[in-house]
């Protein structure tokens, strides 16, 4: 049971874009670049893999949140296709770009809580 609470704690800290080790220092040095070391505790968070999971989770979440509204608006008002594209494509792009760092933080926090590192993932 202690392992699952550690994972939940890591995911919560990652969703706040904070270091999963201490929860204080910033996780990223840029938009998606993981900081070389935590400003508070000095932990190297680059050792936790977050390769393809963040974009997948972002598209999964954004798709499940926005697609129902997209289909509903199509049925309710039947706007022209160009209107649909003009509204939904930029909205999906902006929400995806805004959500991606939080998903990457959550994946890094999950890896920290589960004890998965790049070295252990290779074995």
UniProtKB/TrEMBL annotation:
<keyword id="KW-1133">Transmembrane helix</keyword>
<feature type="transmembrane region" description="Helical">
    <location>
        <begin position="85"/>
        <end position="112"/>
    </location>
</feature>
<dbReference type="InterPro" id="IPR009325">
    <property type="entry name" value="DUF983"/>
</dbReference>
<keyword id="KW-0472">Membrane</keyword>
<dbReference type="Pfam" id="PF06170">
    <property type="entry name" value="DUF983"/>
</dbReference>
<protein>
    <submittedName>
        <fullName>DUF983 domain-containing protein</fullName>
    </submittedName>
</protein>
<keyword id="KW-0812">Transmembrane</keyword>
<feature type="transmembrane region" description="Helical">
    <location>
        <begin position="56"/>
        <end position="73"/>
    </location>
</feature>
């Amino acid at each position: 049971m202690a392992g699952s609470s550690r994972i939940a704690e890591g995911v919560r800290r990652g969703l706040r874009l904070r270091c999963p080790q201490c929860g204080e220092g910033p996780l990223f040095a840029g938009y998606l670049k993981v900081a070389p070391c935590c400003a508070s505790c000095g932990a190297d968070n680059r050792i936790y893999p977050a390769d393809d999971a963040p974009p997948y989770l972002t598209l999964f979440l954004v798709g499940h949140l926005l697609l129902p509204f997209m289909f509903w608006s199509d049925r309710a008002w039947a706007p022209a296709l160009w209107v649909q594209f003009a509204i939904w494509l930029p909205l999906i792009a902006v929400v995806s770009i805004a959500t991606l760092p939080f998903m990457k933080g959550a994946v890094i926090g999950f890896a920290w809580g589960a004890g998965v590192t790049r070295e252990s993932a290779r074995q």
